[in-house]
Amino acid sequence: MKVIIAGATGYIGQEILTQCIAHPSITSIVALTRRDLDIKSDKLRTYLMKDEDFLSYSDPKLRDELKNAGACLWSIGLRPSQAGNDERTRVISVDYPAAAAANMAEIASTSAPGGKLRFVYISGSGVERDQNKSLWWMGNFRRLRGESENVLLRHAEANPDAFEAYIMRPSLVPSTQGTIRDRVWSMFPSVRMDLLARAMVDIALNGNKETTIENQTINEWP
User: Fold this and answer.
1) CATH number of the domain located at residue range(s) 2-219 in this protein
2) Stated pTM of the model
3) Most buried one in 10, 124, 182, 191, CB count within 10 A?
4) What is the pLDDT of residue 187?
């Protein structure tokens, strides 16, 4: 399968990329990034994105790169501490994945095997889809992620032959390096980075019965 990775230079995205390169069922990878990658592989092609590319996908070269992809693993997003009330926060949190879903599904419908794209999106534990609910803790972050979930799930419902959406809801995500932060985070609800990436790659390849995958389910992934 050919897959797209959005956010391959990030904390979790790097692990997703490493596992995709190692997986024998993944034959081609397109990484959408703002800067070059240090990782090299014959499977990997990198497309350097400008801000406008994340909203329009109108560049013919970009659209050509995305052809024949059967899945997108989306790890672009702001941490709770970065999520303000400004327009840029909303653009990155909601508009970027919404534009990706619409455009990638359109491209996949005429090029991907089976004409369908699986979109595996990293959200977070405690995210709220009810946009009218009062939230006293990390309200803006939880509401924006919830809105993005709604957009993706509605797009899947409206385009069942071309698009599947899967929402990953990890809690804290410690790395495998065993740092002090990793050890502290592991004392709370969490899932190791490698387990999260493995579950996402598996869903990209095989789909999943449930479309929202909570932290405990990720930890119990076979």
Assistant:
1) 3.40.50.720
2) 0.93
3) 191
4) 86
